[in-house]
Structure formats: structure tokens, C-alpha cells
């Protein structure tokens, strides 16, 4: 791989990851999804845990975006090592959000927690785990589609959740990752729905991306794993942030733990149920001849050849075909009569006059597999020839 191509791959992955990470943080600060200026008491620490999940997810998606952007700089000979290099570059670019989160966290007051250190650790862990997301995005088309689809749905939920507070100008309540926390949704319904929102989104995205992969005729393994990457980022983000202390944060935490399985379930269903047997699948049509690939030469038909005449000649078939047809029950009455007549003639011969075609048994000389064949010995004349030779001397 040329040095210029390496530079383009690494530069694109690093720059795109840093740009996407900074852009998501700026949007989250502007919309109020992240707010480190709040005073968080011990009894209300779930709001702080929810923001940690957002920070880890921003780092993960930033690294994945770097892998998606750098995909165009891979060549046909690029292997797993090249993709891993691009993933590491994307992870380093996603780490650019670490100082962008630690600086605002200096104004946060969380009882019993060092907010600057905790927020920085979450960003670093998210960027490190994002290396694998970028590596998957660099290698598989289905992985890129699923990452983009799930990330877009998460941002739609966040925008819908903060929309009422933007209209009224009031400070919105903490918005949880992957949960619809809009003001027009009752609290009881929002709490119950938080357990099913992320698995449902992962399942739908897995089905949709799996169908797209099947239409593109990707391999069955690629189709079955098409629903994993996007939900896996949600799972890792909540693992980094933790489950919280009350049901407010525990419900989405356990939902995120099952999101990856739901996404894989959707894509596996598409891969397994959409595949018929090998005989039912449409065969790929033969490629049309091109200047680079001329058509194969074909031999003209020769109707006057001996083989053609023998194939079209009416009359008795090859020796033994009548017997085979009679045994299998596919012979005509005339063929069976012919076989019976030949069997009657063969039965009148003595054992010395029997031919192999009469009995169907061919005697082969013994062969042990090791002794080389011996040439036939030249015997002395005997019988009538010996009598004739002996009479010449009389």
C-alpha cells in the first residue's frame, strides 16, 4: 500500500472522527442534552449517569464515523491490518472530545464524585472501544448501514425529547440515551417504554439492514451480523456509564443490554428465513461476451458423422442393452423375446463353450498388487503341430 494512500486513510479517519465528535458535543450542549452546570445530589445521581452514557456514545459514534468516511480510501488489496490502522486513527480522532468534555465538567458539582476525572475516563473508554466500531465500518457495508441507521434514530429521539423545552424556554429534564423523554409523554408510560424502546429500534434496524444486505446478495454471515454494530454501541455506552441507582436509569440500562441481541435477531431472521434451497435460488446468468472476454468456441453439428448416425439409427441397440432393459422392466415385448431366445441358446452350450456374455462373469487373472506382471512364456509346440514337426524327420 503506497504511502500516499496510507496518509489519506489515516488523515480521513482521524479528521472525520474529530469533526463528528466535536459537532455532536456542540449540538448536545446547545440543545441541553448535556448540562454540566447542574448541582447533582446523591439522591439524584441518575441524571449524571445519563450524561455519562451520552458522552461515551458520542465517542463511540465519532470513531465509527471516522471509519465510514475513510472507507473510500481502501484499495482492493487492503487487509485486516490496514483496516485496523484506520480504526486506530479513528479512535484517536474520537479522543479529541476528551478535553471538550473535561473543561465544562469543571463547573459540575456531583456529591462524592470527581466529575472531571469521571467524564474524561468515560470519553477515553468510548474512544478506545470505538476502534472496533471503526474497524467494522471499514470492512463491511452492512455494518456501516446499521451504524448510520441506529445513530440517526437516537438523535431523532433526542430532538423529540428536547423539543417541548425549546418551545417554552424552560430547563428540560435530563434526556436519557435511547429513551423518549418528551414532556408530553406521561412519566409512567415513559418508564415502561424505556425498557422496550432500544430493543425495538434495534430489531427494526436489524430487519431493514438485513433485507438491504440480502438484496445486495451479501454472504449469509454478513447478512446475519448486519444488525449488531449499531445496538452494540448502545450496549457499550451504558456499560461504561453504569446502571444508576434507581429504576429511572436501571430500565434503559437493561434495555441497552438486550439491544444487541435484538438487532442480531432481526438480521438472523432475514438471513435464515429468506434463503431457500440451493435448487430454488435463481442462478446467476452467464456473463455476456466482451472484447476482453470473447465467447468460447463452439463446434458445428455434424449430422453425417458415424456417432450421429448410430444415435439416430433404428434397430437393435448395443450388445447388452436389451438384457439391461429387460431386467429393469423398461424393455418392449420384442426385446424381451429376443433376450429369452438368446438365453435359451446359451443354456444348450456346454460349460467349455460358455462365453462371458452368457454368464455375465469375467474371469480375471490373480493380482496381488505387488508382483510385476510376467511376460508369457514361449512353450514348445505340442499337439498336432508337434506331430507334424516330428513327421518331417521320418
TrEMBL record:
Region annotated Disordered, chain positions: 276-321, 345-394
Membrane-traversing stretches: 52-72, 84-102, 114-138, 145-166, 193-213, 220-241, 253-274
Protein name: Uncharacterized protein
Keyword Metal-binding: no
Entry keyword set: Membrane, Transmembrane, Transmembrane helix
Record's keyword annotation contains Membrane: yes
